[in-house]
């Protein structure tokens, strides 16, 4: 990296944000007519879409669970989502992100209500700019609610990172690529963490600060998720239609 490039200028980051500031967030609910639930989300330059199908019959049937529904989560990055064209199809990273994302959402889904069935979650990254797994989890959580899947709560996800020795919230691409650490988390509104990963090295104090920042970010994202869902269904009740509702926030 060019040594002359600094990540901070006059206390602001390269994109003009404060260290504890989220990127702009935009959410649209019910964007896919053929899915049971769907959500399009932008977190900064990230653009992801989530679709939920189910509960529905499991195929092949030997995968059925007698006492509960199974949850399947498929994360995929489109070939055109990155600057250098990505090879189409799943890879090791997409399998890993799919697994941890499913485990982040599954604790709040009331799977015992639908034995012998499956809930399928598909997340497609249309444009990537660091933090795609957190954006995907946020979109998937809203899509699950839009599909009417019984849940204990929504799940919100955000990351904190270390850049030039400073802990920052919601790292963008340059900060993620050239930073010293990255800590993505997911949690419910009560603060119970369902996903915690760390790439890089942090001291105990730095990790504590990163978790505090990421939790605060998750709480802000939860309020946006909650608002867009309330607006959508109150609008449908008032208007008797299924018009799309958009929530856009500049954090």
UniProtKB/TrEMBL annotation:
Q: Where in the cell is it found?
A: Cytoplasm
EC nos: 3.1.13.-
What protein does this entry describe?
Answer: Exosome complex component Rrp41
Domain of life where this protein originates: Archaea
Q: Which residues form a coiled coil?
A: none
Query: Could you say which protein family the record assigns here?
Result: Belongs to the RNase PH family. Rrp41 subfamily.
Outline what the protein does: Catalytic component of the exosome, which is a complex involved in RNA degradation. Has 3'->5' exoribonuclease activity. Can also synthesize heteropolymeric RNA-tails.
User: What gene is this protein a product of?
Assistant: rrp41
Name the PANTHER family on file: EXOSOME COMPLEX COMPONENT (PTHR11953), EXOSOME COMPLEX COMPONENT RRP41 (PTHR11953:SF0)
Q: What class of enzyme is it?
A: hydrolase
Query: What terms describe the molecular function in GO for this protein?
Result: exonuclease activity
Pfam families hit by this protein:
RNase_PH, RNase_PH_C
| Subunit (UniProt) | Component of the archaeal exosome complex. Forms a hexameric ring-like arrangement composed of 3 Rrp41-Rrp42 heterodimers. The hexameric ring associates with a trimer of Rrp4 and/or Csl4 subunits.
Q: What keywords is this UniProt entry annotated with?
A: Cytoplasm, Exonuclease, Exosome, Hydrolase, Nuclease
Using the record's annotation, list all stretches that form the Exoribonuclease phosphorolytic domain. Answer: 21-150, 154-216
Keyword Nuclease listed: yes
């Amino acid at each position: 990296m060019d040594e002359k490039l600094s990540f901070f200028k006059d206390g602001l980051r390269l994109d003009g944000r404060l260290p504890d500031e989220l990127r702009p967030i935009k959410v649209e609910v019910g964007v896919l007519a053929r899915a049971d639930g769907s959500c399009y989300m932008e977190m900064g330059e990230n653009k992801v879409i989530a679709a939920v199908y189910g509960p529905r019959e499991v195929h092949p049937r030997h995968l059925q669970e007698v006492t509960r529904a199974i949850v399947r989560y498929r994360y995929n990055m489109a070939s055109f989502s990155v600057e250098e064209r990505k090879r189409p199809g799943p890879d090791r990273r997409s399998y890993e992100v799919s697994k941890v994302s499913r485990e982040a959402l599954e604790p709040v889904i009331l799977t015992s209500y639908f034995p012998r069935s499956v809930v399928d979650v598909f997340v497609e990254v249309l444009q990537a700019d660091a933090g795609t797994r957190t954006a995907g989890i946020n979109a998937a959580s809203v899509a699950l609610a839009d599909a009417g899947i019984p849940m204990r709560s929504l799940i919100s996800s955000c990351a904190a990172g270390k850049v030039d020795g400073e802990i920052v919230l919601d790292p963008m691409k340059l900060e993620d690529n050239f930073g010293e650490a990255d800590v993505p988390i997911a949690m419910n509104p009560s603060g119970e963490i369902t996903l915690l990963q760390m790439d890089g090295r942090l001291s105990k104090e730095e990790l504590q600060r990163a978790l505090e920042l990421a939790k605060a970010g998750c709480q802000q994202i939860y309020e946006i998720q909650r608002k867009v869902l309330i607006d959508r269904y109150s609008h449908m009740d008032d208007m008797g239609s299924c018009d799309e509702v958009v929530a856009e926030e500049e954090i």
